[in-house]
Design brief:
Elements: H1 13-19, H2 27-64, H3 71-93, H4 101-109, H5 111-145, E1 149-152, E2 156-159
Antiparallel strand pairs: 1-2
Helix pairs in contact: 2-3, 4-5
């Protein structure tokens, strides 16, 4: 039997679960990881930019009685964007907040049933995302066709459709 660090590819797939060693990566996997890391970094940079913008707005209100127009709208729209920029990397790394103690115990005690249950959970996730997509795509099409926007005209506006 090959060792976990062996590059020959002779390691049984179940050994990765037992040892925690990552499975062999291909070019597609490496590319996806790079994209997800980049999007996560972009989300982190945007959080920093928002922090500066919010502080400048607060200082402007306090010291000059002149806030920066549109900060509230920018922050509202950015929260959703930041979540989706960082969601892929968090999912790929297994860092999403979750409580899977019961599932892990079931997977360890009854691996076949645990994998079946995991597949059911994945299927339910796909169905849920399809329902969300079904409900939101018509709203996005309407926002694009009717040129809907957030904010107050003449003060600050931003298109509604990307969010």
């Amino acid at each position: 039997m090959a060792e976990p660090g062996d590059e020959s590819g002779d390691i049984p797939s179940g050994l990765y679960l037992e040892t925690g060693a990552p499975p062999p990566r291909g070019a597609l996997s490496a590319s996806l990881e790079w994209i997800l890391n980049s999007l996560n970094g972009l989300g982190s940079i945007w959080i920093f930019v928002l922090m500066i913008l919010i502080n400048l707005d607060a200082f402007g209100r306090t010291f000059f009685a002149h806030p920066i127009e549109g900060v509230v709208e920018i922050v509202e729209m950015s929260i959703v964007a930041i979540v989706f920029l960082q969601l892929g990397d968090a999912t790929q790394r297994g860092r999403l907040t979750r409580s899977d103690g019961l599932f892990q115990r079931l997977l360890n005690g009854y691996p076949g049933f645990g994998r079946f249950l995991g597949a059911i959970f994945d299927l339910l996730g796909i169905i849920f995302m399809a329902i969300v997509l079904y409900g939101t795509v018509p709203e996005m099409i309407e926002a694009v066709n009717e040129n809907l926007y957030y904010g107050s005209e003449g003060v600050f506006t931003a298109p509604k459709w990307p969010v």
